[in-house]
Fold these 2 entries.
Entry 1:
Amino acid sequence: MKLAKTLQSLFVTSEAHPLIKTGGLADVAGSLPQALATLKAVRQQAAVNQHILLPGYRSVLAQFDDLKHIADIEHTGHHGVVRLLETKFPDSDITLWLVDAPNCFDRDGGPYADATGQDWPDNAARFAVFSRAAVAIALNQLDLDWQPDIVHCHDWQTGLIPALLSLHEQRPATLFTIHNLAYQGVYSAETFFNLGLPQELWHMHGLEYHGNMAFIKGGLAYADWLTTVSPTYAHEIQGSEFGFGLDGLLRHRTEQLNGIINGVDYDDWDPATDPALVENYDVEHFEKKLSNKTALQKQAGLPVDEDIPVLAFIGRLVWQKGIDVLLESLPQLLRLNIQCIILGSGEHSHEQTLRKLQKRFPDKLAVTIGYNEEYAHQLEAGADMFCMLSRYEPCGLNQLYSLRYGTVPIVRRTGGLADTVIDASQGARSTGFCFNQTTQADFIDAMQRALARYNKPKQWQALAERGMRRDFGWQQSARHYLELYIKVCQQRP
Ligand code: ADP
Ligand code: GLC
């Protein structure tokens, strides 16, 4: 194609901070488009004009009072009226389009599950409708007088888009980003036919997956290019341990697959300006972190003592995050001179175990079950250390937030954690502690190394300050995406 000076991109996502969030995808979707939009055309490269497409969840629609109905979308299946609404993404100039399909999205609860954590039984239909709306926009079928050069899709919820677009000659380029390969959107063959999906897509190199259908295969098999969110994870998912049954397909696509590390939105995550903190601080004023620690200990109901190291964990309480191993390790860990604060929600059994452990160790362990954005910021600021025992971690954002907040990360060496944290054994480059396996032995060993270092305050501070100086802002990663957008568009015949 002839490259326009400004590339038009449709960024399709099922969540975006600050509108709707269950995890890191929302952080990325809420900040990458803006980072891309602010990249100026340099060295003859195009700039990019983003439009974001998001489902019109009830809670999202309620956040706007200026929604403009700009089109009706037909042929999305038997789901009543589907309208396209337009507004601006908060605090930006970026066009936000919302797919208003009341049968699918006008309900209480989360984007994928009800208030009790049960997946919505009609998720396949909901995200098929959403994907068909994206396809209609991408093919300029809605008289919007706008067509993207590239459609950038994220995770299984958008997997049908590259597949459906592949059936059209005059289509934009497609890029599919894998944020988590384990979530695949697998449904029965019957669902495939009930959704009225084109028969041409039903084969083992298409959407069919061991007799079922997998939404994610639509992205993996049909997108022009694939990315994931760290170079190490891009490598790992091509092997059987991390490939979750899709490693063969990913090896087949290895020439069109690369890893681009996520950036951090330092407008949201910077201790120098963070409004959630009792006192702001930066690398030149590390000592001011202490008042945040004191406030945190008070808030968590733990003894206020600046000499006791505070370890934090924030995240989804699921197998991926190694929460079971953290729980197993706590009785041994809490015998040491340490306090531990956990914020998370997820599997009921882990929530129960946490509550029990808190009763057993009231002076050492503080647990908050639930989702609390402000507390997450206060924890990042007030804790001394942050642990991530992930069995796999495509990128991980909390270790990046921890680095900026001078909260030393202790992480399993996998995926994006391996790419962003440098172990203390590496001397002057080091920023944290890494361990090899999600086991109690490896974790406790890393914790003991961390505690020994903590007892040497000058060395500890130097380690924390090195982390604070690392720059994981979006600038570089956004530039990589832009270069990739250009390359993928140029390769379209
Ligand atoms: P994942 O997307 O796999 O859950 P990430 O590390 O990429 O993991 O991103 C998780 C994001 O969700 C971070 O912004 C983190 O602070 C946030 N988060 C997770 N659980 C909670 C919670 N219980 N309360 C507040 N924020 C949370
Ligand atoms: C996924 C991954 C996480 C990553 C996030 C954003 O949820 O589990 O590692 O940081 O997506 O890309």
Entry 2:
Amino acid sequence: MTARRLLLVNGPNLNMLGTRQPEIYGSTTLAQIEQRVAELAAESGFEVRAVQSNHEGALVDAIQAARQDCVGIIINPAAYSHTSVAIRDALSAAELPVVEVHLSNIHTREAFRHHSYVSAVAEVVIAGAGPAGYEYAVRYLAERKS
Ligand code: DQA
């Protein structure tokens, strides 16, 4: 099935955006990010399914489901970026273009954030652009030749 739908996945603690360490993550809420992504995607004829979970298995389930009815995945795996082989394997199995987004530049932060298990299975990695990173991700997937 080739529905023009994107999966937007946000991992643990990103439900706290807006109040969580605003000096690092800014003051934009997750609801505002999800709304902006949906609006921008709609301009290019895409629907968006937005999922946020603090639970690794729920994120794996959402990624597995995307294989059925999505054409691309935008994911901020948050702390699971640095720990989760399960999320990486789910993304590989989905066989969809993946854009990995981080609000902060993980490479200028603590050493344990410098490695992401997800990056090797992402077509594009965007880090440090704040909420605009999600917009760049939508633009990339909308303009990508499938
Ligand atoms: C993050 C960076 C991660 O290291 C961190 O665990 C997060 C958010 C980001 O968007 O900058 O929760 O993915």
